[in-house]
Amino acid sequence: MMLELSKKNGLDDTDEVTGEFLSIDGERFYAIHNVDKMAPFFISVISSHDHWLFISSTGGLTAGRVSPDTALFPYITVDRVHECASHTGSKSILRVNVKGEQRLWEPFNGEHAGRYEVSRNVYKNLLGSKICFEEINHDLQLLFRYSWATSDRFGFVRQCELQNFGGQSISVDLLDGLQNILPAGTPITAQTNASNLVDAYKWTELDEQTGLATYSLYSGISDRAEPSESLRANTVFCLGLEAHKTLLSSKQISRFRAGKELEREFHRRGIRGAY
C-alpha cells in the first residue's frame, strides 16, 4: 500500500481530528487523521466469503470464519475488544539505531503516550473490505503501517510497511507479528467460560523449513474418560522479509525490549499462541 506523505496524513504535527476521501494505489479510501484523539470506536471489515472481522480503533480485534466457534482471535464483547490491543492481534516493536543510539518504538502502544511525538491515522476502503492503521513518529522520522484484508484462499491477510522519510541512515531490529491466536476447534462456550482450560489444551508447532505454524488442541476439550481427537489446526505463515527467528509465544517480548538475544521457538504447549 503506497500513500504519499503530506500534511494531510499527519506530517504537519497537528492534534486536529479530520477526515477525507483519498486514493491509494488507485483504490478509494476514507481516512481519519489523529484517530487516537477520539474515543475508541468499533469497525467492521466485510468479506465476500465467510470471514468476519470486528476491530477497534485501538487495534484490538476479534476475527474468524463462519461462526464464533471457528474464531482465529477470541470472540469477545466490544468493551473487551477496545482493551485487548496490547495482547491480541497485531504487535510490533522496533529497536531503532540512529547514530549509535538505540531507541525503542512500539507503534500503537497507548501506554507509551508522550514518549515520542506521533500521529495515528486509520484508513478504510469504500467497499469496507480493507482497513489500514498508520503511526507516524515525527521524532524518529519513521512511518509504520499495517492493514487487514481477507482472502478466500489464505484467510486473513495482514500487510505491513515501514518507511524512513528522514534524511539519515538508520538500522532497525523488528519484532512483528500476531498474539493470542486460537487453536482450531475452540467452541465459543469454552472461549468465554473456560479460557484457562483452553490454554491448557493448546499445542503450537512450527515447520522450520516452510515457516508455517500450526495452532491446534492436543485433544478435544472434554471432561469424559474417553478418547477425543482434535484433527484440525489454524495456520499462520509470512512472506516478505525473511524471519531471522520465529517465536510461537509472547514470552520473549520483554527480552526483545531489553535488547537481549532471542531463542527460536519450534514447539509450545499449554500457553497462548503467537507468531
Task: Please describe the structure with a list of short key phrases separated by commas or semicolons.
275 residues; mainly beta; six-stranded antiparallel β-sheet; 4 helices; 18 strands
Structure report:
The protein has 275 residues and is mainly beta. The protein folds into two domains: 177 residues, no CATH class; 94 residues, no CATH class. Helix content is 9%, strand content 41%. It has four helices and 18 strands. The strands form four sheets. It has a six-stranded antiparallel β-sheet with strand order 1-2-9-10-11-12, with no helix packed on it. A four-stranded antiparallel β-sheet has the order 3-4-5-6. A hairpin with a 4-residue loop joins strand 4 and strand 5. The longest helix has 7 residues. The chain is globular and about 65 Å long. The protein starts with 17 loop residues before the first strand and ends with a strand. The model has no long low-confidence stretch (mean pLDDT 92).
Which regions are unreliable across 5 or more consecutive residues at pLDDT < 50? none
Spatial gap, N to C terminus:
23 Å
Helix and strand content put the structural class at: mainly beta
* Helix content bin: under 10%
Count of structural domains: 2
**Oligomeric state of the chains present here:** single chain
List the helices and strands in order.
EEEEEEHEEEEEEEHHEEEHEE
Strand order of the biggest β-sheet = 1-2-9-10-11-12
In this structure, how is the largest beta sheet organized?
A: 6 strands, antiparallel
Q: Count up the helices.
A: 4
Radius of gyration: 19 Å
Give the tally of β-strands. 18
**Mean of residue pLDDT?**
92
Described by the principal axes of the CA atoms, the overall outline is globular
* Fraction in beta strands: 35-45%
